[in-house]
């Protein structure tokens, strides 16, 4: 012991390699601390992911009051599995548990995450859990306008699939899920847009038309400022009407392709099977007029003519949602003040339309699908009611499917579920 004490005194007095020794002695706890921090970050991210998955599961189970308890558990379990699936959850098993009570459902789930460097400190795993309780108001309804880009670029391939095909599948799944979870309480309309919109309108609302009955054809936006409003056209004032002269753009195709590609506006309907059938038939065509699509999407949801069947804005029992998807920037000229007509004005009109629709209580949800233009992405983000919740970037076909799944969950939560 005397020799050992003498050795320690020599070690303490020695200055040779002091820094290296100190660093060596502190390296292990520093690395352990960093490793523990990474494990905690993983656990936090996994917990947030689990909470989102269990929220979706509870919403799916609770929003189906016409199903048996067993069927609701199956539906909720399917929703949980779909939302739980992620790169971070590989090898981590979790299953939801549902407890049904009068008027609602409680859902919960647990999982065990194997640690990395925390294992050195004797902590081999961390417990992850999530839970939620939801209740269903029985009298709420939804009106949804799907404003979908059918310009020529939607025939390109993204993520191994043609873009419009991926969009169609995602939209059809949304329609089918809403039909199953809320039968009789959902109306959906379609606005397929490219450089024009093809629709049926009363002749009184179309420039150059007169008499009873409807006119069916292609139109661009109304003159400014009517193209950023949801007012009904004045039969005595052509400036308020659709059917203004089409833009003279080199290389433009005519209106003939819309009929062949089934690109007609479908007003709100509770016949959701017919919505799915039209989604199956539609094909892309020509340039991009995003503002025009949103203009008609707003009119579908507006209680004002030309379209019928939409609830009043102050009807608290009906939630109104517009879903807007595009893969490109505005390439079609739009009307503005003082005779202006160009694509930049179309970008301005899009922003104005989004703000006006939101002011009426319409929930705006936007999807940037394989969209490379940063300015358009920013406009879509700003267009969304809540940019953090209602704006989606989908880089490929798989991500557009996930975006529509989340849109379905949010529509169900905001319209049908009171938490």
Describe this structure in words.
There is one protein chain. This protein is 41% helix and 21% strand. The chain is of the alpha/beta class and 419 residues long. It has a 6-stranded mixed beta sheet with strand order 10-7-4-11-14-15, sandwiched between helices. A 3-stranded antiparallel beta sheet has the order 1-2-3. A two-stranded antiparallel sheet has the order 5-6. Strand 5 and strand 6 (161-162) form a beta hairpin. The radius of gyration is 28 Å and the shape is globular.
Write the layout of secondary structure elements.
Elements: H1 2-13, H2 18-62, H3 69-84, E1 95-101, E2 104-114, E3 125-135, E4 141-149, E5 157-158, E6 161-162, H4 163-181, E7 186-193, E8 197-202, E9 214-219, H5 256-260, E10 266-269, H6 272-281, H7 290-301, E11 318-326, E12 334-335, E13 341-342, H8 343-359, E14 363-369, H9 374-383, H10 387-390, E15 391-394, H11 397-416
Parallel strand pairs: 4-7, 4-11, 11-14, 14-15
Antiparallel strand pairs: 1-2, 2-3, 5-6, 7-10, 8-9, 12-13
């Amino acid at each position: 012991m005397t020799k050992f004490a003498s050795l320690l005194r020599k070690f303490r007095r020695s200055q040779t390699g002091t820094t290296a020794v100190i660093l060596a002695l502190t390296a292990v706890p520093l690395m352990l601390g960093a490793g523990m921090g990474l494990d905690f970050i993983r656990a936090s991210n996994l917990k947030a992911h689990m909470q989102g998955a269990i929220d979706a599961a509870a919403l799916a189970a609770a929003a189906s009051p016409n199903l048996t308890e067993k069927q609701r558990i199956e539906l909720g379990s399917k929703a949980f599995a779909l939302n739980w699936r992620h790169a971070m959850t590989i090898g981590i098993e979790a299953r939801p548990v549902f407890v049904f009570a009068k008027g609602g459902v409680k859902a919960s789930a647990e999982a065990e995450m194997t640690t990395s460097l925390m294992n050195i400190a004797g902590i081999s795993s961390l417990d992850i859990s999530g839970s939620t309780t939801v209740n269903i108001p029985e009298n709420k309804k939804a009106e949804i306008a799907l404003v979908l880009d059918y310009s020529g670029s939607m025939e390109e391939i993204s993520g191994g699939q043609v873009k419009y095909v991926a969009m169609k599948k995602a939209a059809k799944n949304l329609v089918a899920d809403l039909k199953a979870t809320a039968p009789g309480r959902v109306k959906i309309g379609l606005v397929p847009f490219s450089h024009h919109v093809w629709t049926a309108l009363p002749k009184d609302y179309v420039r150059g038309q007169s008499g009873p009955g409807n006119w069916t054809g292609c139109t661009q936006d109304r003159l400014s400022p009517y193209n950023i409003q949801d007012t009904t056209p004045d039969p005595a004032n052509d400036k308020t009407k659709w059917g203004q002269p089409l833009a003279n753009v080199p290389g433009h195709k005519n209106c003939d392709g819309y009929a062949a590609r089934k690109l007609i506006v479908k007003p709100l309907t509770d016949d959701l099977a017919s919505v799915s059938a039209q989604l199956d038939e539609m094909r892309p065509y020509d340039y991009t007029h995003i503002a025009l699509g949103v203009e008609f999407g707003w009119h579908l949801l507006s209680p004002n003519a030309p379209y019928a069947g939409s609830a009043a804005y102050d009807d608290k029992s009906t939630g109104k949602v517009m879903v807007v998807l595009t893969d490109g920037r505005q390439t079609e000229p739009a009307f503005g003040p003082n005779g202006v007509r160009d694509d930049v004005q179309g970008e301005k009109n899009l922003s104005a339309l989004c703000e006006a629709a939101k002011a009426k209580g319409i929930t705006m949800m936007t999807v940037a699908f394989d969209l490379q233009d940063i300015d358009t992405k920013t406009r879509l983000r700003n267009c969304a009611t809540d940019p953090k919740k209602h704006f989606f970037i989908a880089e490929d076909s798989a991500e557009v499917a996930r975006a529509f799944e989340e849109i379905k969950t949010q529509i169900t939560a905001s319209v049908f579920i009171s938490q």
